[in-house]
Design brief:
DUF1118, Wiskott-aldrich syndrome family protein, mainly alpha, extended, transmembrane helix, transmembrane, 3 domains, 3 strands, three-stranded antiparallel sheet
């Protein structure tokens, strides 16, 4: 169908006259006219904005949604973690009195849990600690009692810290996985 322009309206080759659209009412404008009035972005701007959208959506972590999907609260309840914490003297009122929640906010615990670089950093720290223990035992001589004590303490701290960092890395990585 060929469309030709007329001064008082548009007409087609079939002789049908289409009245012109009013510019005052944008609701009735066709999409082509509305798109023609908007400035077209340059290709470099479009590529950058697409990259930014992809990066921001790929890096956003929905922590509470992931906690719900993994049913962590149910698992904590079934494991009796709250009862064990209360027996150890850590109840909700104790947490409130110590100000642990506000301290966690100040330290940025939740924002750290959503940081995608955290699992890698924890894994690196765990591997460093797990290498430190045997290296200390190998490098520190065993001439005196205090040197043997240093070896034992460093090895114990390295194994416990490395294991804890490895477990934390795995846990945070699991929280950040998208389903």
């Amino acid at each position: 169908m060929e469309v030709t322009a007329a001064t008082c309206g548009r007409s087609s080759s079939l002789g049908i006259v289409i009245p012109p659209f009013r510019k005052t009412n944008s609701f009735f404008k066709p999409m082509a006219m509305a798109a023609a009035q908007k400035p077209l972005p340059s290709s470099s701007t479009t590529a950058v904005s697409k990259k930014q959208k992809t990066t921001s959506s790929a890096t956003s972590v929905k922590l509470l949604t992931r906690v719900e999907q993994l049913k962590l609260l149910t698992k904590a309840e079934k494991a009796g973690l709250l009862s064990a914490a209360e027996k150890a003297g850590l109840s909700l009122s104790t947490i409130e009195k110590l100000g642990l929640l506000s301290k966690a906010e100040e330290l940025g615990v939740l924002s750290a849990a959503t940081d995608t670089a955290l699992p890698g950093a924890l894994l690196t720290a765990s591997l460093g600690l797990l290498v430190l223990g045997p290296a200390c035992v190998y490098l520190v001589p065993e001439d005196n009692l205090w040197q043997v004590v240093i070896q034992a303490v460093v090895a114990l701290v390295s194994v416990l810290g490395g294991s804890a960092a490895f477990a934390a890395s795995s846990f945070v990585s699991n929280l950040q996985k998208s389903s």
